[in-house]
Model the fold of this input.
Amino acid sequence: MMNFVFILLGIPILIGLYNRYIPVLRMSYLEISDISKDSSRIIIDIRDYNVTYKQPIKGAINIPVGYLNRYYEDIPYQTIHLISSNALEKNVGTRILRKKGFKVVSYSLFEEICDKSYNRNNIEQFC
Done:
């Protein structure tokens, strides 16, 4: 009986781990500089607002990954290119959009650039 309870409790945990950490298949990686060459794709930036505000991507629709379930209706139904900060964001965002019926075919990872001018004590800051 206890094994059955552990199995029931373990299934949601395994599903959550799969959705976050197992890489999404059938997606190609594109450099940021190569995005504008293909105008048939809609560019969706799923980074946080505070990161996007500091480093905007021209022509991208900004909907942070936490808001995709709420605002997916604002995205036109075309082929999508995702821009995210890391692989976890990419995996979660892609799975949400594909579940809503979108065709996500490519992605770019955009690293945050630290601005050391705000550091008054010359202490190294991490992004």
